[in-house]
Amino acid sequence: xxxxxxxxxxxxxxxxxxxxxxxxxxxxxxxxxxxxxxxxxxxxxxxxxxxxxxxxxxxxxxxxxxxxxxxxxxxxxxxxxxxxxxxxxxxxxxxxxxxxxxxxxxxxxxxxxxxxxxxxxxxxxxxxxxxxxxxxxxxxxxxxxxxxxxxxxxxxxxxxxxxxxxxxxxxxxxxxxxxxxxxxxxxxxxxxxxxxxxxxxxxxxxxxxxxxxxxxxxxxxxxxxxxxxxxxxxxxxxxxxxxxxxxxxxxxxxxxxxxxxxxxxxxxxxxxxxxxxxxxxxxxxxxxxxxxxxxxxxxxxxxxxxxxxxxxxxxxxxxxxxxxxxxxxxxxxxxxxxxxxxxxxxxxxxxxxxxxxxxxxxxxxxxxxxxxxxxxxxxxxxxxxxxxxxxxxxxxxxxxxxxxxxxxxxxxxxxxxxxxxxxxxxxxxxxxxxxxxxxxxxxxxxxxxxxxxxxxxxxxxxxxxxxxxxxxxxxxxxxxxxxxxxxxxxxxxxxxx
Length: 497
What we know:
By secondary structure, the chain is of the alpha/beta class. The chain has four domains: 2-52; 67-239, Rossmann fold; 245-315, Helicase, Ruva Protein, domain 3; 325-496, CATH 1.20.58.760. Helices cover 55% and strands 10% of the residues. The protein contains 18 helices and ten strands. A five-stranded parallel beta sheet has the order 4-5-6-3-7, with helices on both faces. Strand 1 and strand 2 form a beta hairpin. The longest helix has 25 residues, at 438-462. The chain starts with a helix and ends with a helix. Residues 44-56 have low confidence and may be disordered.
């Protein structure tokens, strides 16, 4: 109602002053300037000022997310639950003289479930839950970010008191945006925002009611300021890593509950083929598989739909890029080179070979590691380098020269070579790459690559007939499954013998 009165009175006042002979031009210009300034201030503060009324935008409705709904991450969930139990069982913790934790930092790659775990934590402790992103606190105007930090703490307390809750959780995603290292250059707004967060955390008392817990997530914990990570602020750092095979199967089971699965679908195999996938990517695989089944009007989601979905999540959607017959044959030879070497050095590793363009690739070999691996020996790295080189060597054997299609393979091979050198697995011994001269690195890299190139060439020369026969089928069929490739390889070997 007050807004309508103001809108009616101001024009009437200007008309009256003009009628009385007063020059109202300066008043109009001044009013416009004030209005423009007020508009930008409201915009910069995220629309939180509205005629004396504060707009709440960080509150999150009560979530039903439970730890049981998050596949895998058993160690991380156990560690987080233990920290949360100090909020729930305050009196028992007090007997042991335990100081309740003020902050918990979740670190790990994107899509591993850090935000889900924060929501599950709020549900587990029956806490008020307020969430924000680090980018919300970074503004051009000094003091705006610091004010938002203060508002965040007030908001969670208000929400907890309103709902009669004993505790509240503040979750800040991408905290590295506002909590980055303060080295060298200084930015007043960044510094004030971070300092305000540190001040609020220092002011949190374990006897306050409601008790507040700060949770934060980042993909780059190494970028955070040391003042933020010291004990008494973020007391516990929990790594939320990529899921292993067992966890990937658990995630698959969660996301297929409402989907009509075909009888022949093997979840163990899908879990094996999604090595290196995050939880978010696995969820996307199940969704894309359902979309492929929907397109075909299939009554169930079958193995072929999951295979297509894995390819799409890994490589992107099929492109409309048309290749001529000569290029398709070269791509087939190139990919068969990779596949033959992969099977030679690591049997049963090929999951699929295709010449269907996806993303930036004209073709590719999807490998299927038999087990998750976290430590790499010299022998393993050399075999992986040979797989990378297999495509270029196959082209040389067939056509006498290479193509630009090998650039990505060589980049990957060089990364593996540098990893060998940096890990002390080369002739140079235990060294650090940055301590070596470029000439030394180049010489050792060339020696490793030349040695493995010759070994790769000898294998493919002996299997040239298999490579050319397989390429002819691949050009015609576009896709060969790993099982078909192995069956064909064994039959071709018998004929040659």
